[in-house]
Amino acid sequence: MNNEEKNAYVKQQITSTLLKLLENKDLNCISIKELCDVANVGRASFYRNYESKEDVIRQYSNILIQQWGKEFENNPNSSIFNFFESLFTHFEQNKTFYLCLHKMHMSQIILDTIKQTMQINSDLPSKEAYGRSWLAYGIYGLIEEWISRGMLESPAQMNQLIAENAKMQ
User: Fold this and answer.
1) Mean pLDDT rounded to a whole number for the chain
2) How far apart (Å, rounded) are the C-alpha atoms in residues 53 and 18?
3) In this predicted model, what pLDDT tens digit does every residue of 113-164 receive, in sequence order?
4) pTM for the whole structure
5) Which of the two ends of the chain, N or C, has the fewest CB atoms closer than 10 A to its terminal CB?
6) How far apart are CA 169 and CA 154, in angstroms?
7) What proportion of the chain, given as a percentage, has pLDDT over 70?
8) CA distances in angstroms from 57 to 50, 93, 97, 110, 142, listed in the order given
9) What is the 3-state secondary structure (H, E, C) of the chain?
10) Cα distance between residue 90 and residue 145, in whole Å
11) What end-to-end distance do the CA atoms of the chain give, in Å?
12) What is the pLDDT of residues 91-115, one digit of tens each?
């Protein structure tokens, strides 16, 4: 195994272990030592890859959204008409993770991931920055409300609700 493969393995071990520990413990009750011991990795390996436990969660959130984005782009049936259904399907498939974020009051990570994915930054012209921000916060608001309500509607129902609301505007 080369260094890149070893590092990928370490990151996977840390991430999966943290997610497993979060099933029964609050994030602030999990120490880096405990995380590394259970993951069977050294503290140096942890700090080589992450700044904090929150950083593990942020990076995992980014990975999930990037995977969804690639799947959406590579699907020949993807279109603006099923964008939200695809996105909500992603959240439904990763329900445990996103409900955990919500429970820990860390849903801001979802917004941060959306903003990062949409490349919202201070270098953008104002019109583009505000347009992207409006969209990012709107998407986040839909996701957060859906999670808060227990994710009761199916992705197809969410897509339909969004389409109906868009027509009303």
Assistant:
1) 93
2) 8
3) 999 999 998 999 999 999 999 999 999 999 999 999 999 999 999 999 999 8
4) 0.87
5) C
6) 23
7) 99
8) 10, 17, 9, 10, 21
9) CCHHHHHHHHHHHHHHHHHHHCCCCCHHHCCHHHHHHHHCCCHHHHHHHCCCHHHHHHHHHHHHHHHHHHHHHHCCCCCCCCHHHHHHHHHHHCHHHHHHHHHCCCCHHHHHHHHHHCCCCCCCCHHHHHHHHHHHHHHHHHHHHHHHCCCCCCHHHHHHHHHHHHHHC
10) 16
11) 56
12) 999 999 999 999 999 999 999 999 9
Encode 50-98 in three state secondary structure.
CCCHHHHHHHHHHHHHHHHHHHHHHCCCCCCCCHHHHHHHHHHHCHHHH
